[in-house]
Specification:
By secondary structure, the protein is of the alpha/beta class. The chain is built from 17 helices and 15 strands.
Length: 431
């Protein structure tokens, strides 16, 4: 792709933010390229937040304009445009890696740099990201588009598959409670069951039924069909139940991705309806490929046994190697949960992680949550009550998983305390 002064009908609008010296360099480089238009500049963190009220396709952000990492991490959730963040050089390497990992939790952050970057190459990435966002908005029928200056900003949606190649690990329990925590933090959330017969409605709320379900959508794959298939737990927590039996599930999973009634099209339709969190309760084997192809994040749920460690290793390799290129789930988007851990039984969390790492013969993500075996969970599920609503031990154990996906949108937990704090760039950051 050649970069020159040729003008375009709809140039990519860019917000530049950082210390004045950095912004001036960016401005000089971009102002001579017809594909880009500088929409605004900001030299301080407060000015940056004020400029977000405008419309921009891309943001170049030098983190040095903020008074430390806490201010940066509190500002990023307010950003919706494709964003490229430049971190300062003069901090220890381990703290820079913590910052990178923290920023990876935000889909709008496309890449982070330390110090400088190859600006011509970055221009190509910026232009491609902006065009991808515009095409997505067009594909979704223009939903969540703000006009003015040629800018477009589709909603960044978390599409999470909860899966492993072993039954009985507690995937549906994780799905339902993770969905509740997403809703609680202000995200419009849709849970989709993909089993047959599907237990998800039984886990979520006493008023939910096995019908309507995915067969409702399958018979009418339109916006109206989607609404007809949905059951509402609350204003921001909705569910589509899976199939009543394995035969209907098998028929659904044989549908090609391009078919109007496929799972991929269902997810696209849900994004158009402004769901910002979609959680897919994937079955152990049949149907998992469709869920993984539609998702951009993965939760691997395992039990503390040697068999589960082996199956978790196979599942991880399946996603990162065999299905590489067929999904958008990178290793950084995989969370591992060890469920039903009991003292004196099976592997300890450290032993489990070591077993998977040995079998994998490579690096394996750390356990993001360790959930103890709590007998009261089954009792609550029998009453059709979510454990996070009634059991503080369970809630505390699963909260780190929610924190790894969902920023609390600047709100507190209700008692004045934030849900979690992380240490980024040497400073404890409210997360």
């Amino acid at each position: 792709m050649a970069w020159n002064n040729t003008n375009t009908e709809d140039p990519v609008s860019v917000l530049l933010a950082g210390p004045q010296e950095r912004v001036d360099l960016w401005y000089q480089a971009l102002s001579g390229v017809g594909r880009f238009r500088i929409s605004s500049v900001a030299y301080t963190g407060d000015d940056f937040l004020a400029k977000l009220g405008g419309v921009q396709d891309v943001i170049l952000l030098d983190a040095a304009c903020f008074d430390g990492p806490q201010a940066l991490m509190q500002a990023i959730p307010k950003v919706q445009s494709a964003t490229y963040v430049f971190l300062p050089r003069d901090v220890p390497q381990n703290e820079l890696e913590q910052a990178r990992q923290g920023l990876e939790n935000f889909p709008q952050v496309k890449k982070t740099f330390v110090g400088d970057a190859n600006l011509p190459n970055l221009m190509k990435e910026m232009y491609a990201a902006a065009q991808g966002n515009r095409n997505a908005v067009q594909h979704w029928g223009g939903g969540n588009r703000k006009s003015g200056g040629g800018g477009s900003r589709p909603v960044a949606t978390r599409i999470i598959a909860v899966w492993n190649q072993v039954g009985g690990a507690g995937k549906t329990t994780i799905t339902s409670n993770l969905g509740y925590l997403a809703m609680e933090r202000g995200y419009k959330t849709l849970l989709i069951g993909l089993d047959g017969p599907d237990p998800l409605p039984l886990y979520v709320d006493a008023k939910l039924k096995s019908r309507p379900n995915l067969t409702t959508w399958q018979s009418n794959p339109t916006a109206e069909g989607l609404q007809a298939a949905i059951q509402k737990v609350s204003a921001n927590l909705h569910i589509i139940a899976g199939f009543p039996d394995l035969f209907l599930l098998s028929e659904f999973m044989e549908i090609e991705e391009a078919h109007p009634a496929s799972l991929s099209r269902l997810v696209d339709m849900a994004i158009k309806e402004e769901y910002t969190v979609i959680i897919l309760d994937a079955p152990p084997s049949q149907g998992a490929a469709s869920a993984l192809a539609a998702a951009n994040s993965l939760v691997l749920v395992a039990r503390p046994t040697d068999e589960s460690a082996y199956r978790t290793m196979v599942a991880y390799k399946t996603v990162t190697e065999r299905l590489s290129g067929l999904n958008s789930i990178t290793p950084s988007k995989i969370r591992v949960v060890l469920n039903m851990v009991r003292r004196g039984y099976g592997l300890t969390p450290d032993e489990f992680h070591a077993a998977v790492t040995r079998a994998l013969q490579g690096t394996f993500p750390p356990l993001v949550a360790v959930i103890p075996d709590i007998p009261k969970v089954l009792d609550l599920q029998g009453e059709r009550v979510l454990p996070v609503q009634r059991n503080e031990t369970y809630r505390e154990a699963i909260t780190p998983l929610a924190n790894s996906f969902f920023v609390d949108k600047g709100t507190s937990s209700g008692n004045g305390q934030y849900k979690e704090e992380k240490k980024i760039l040497g400073i404890r950051v409210r997360w």
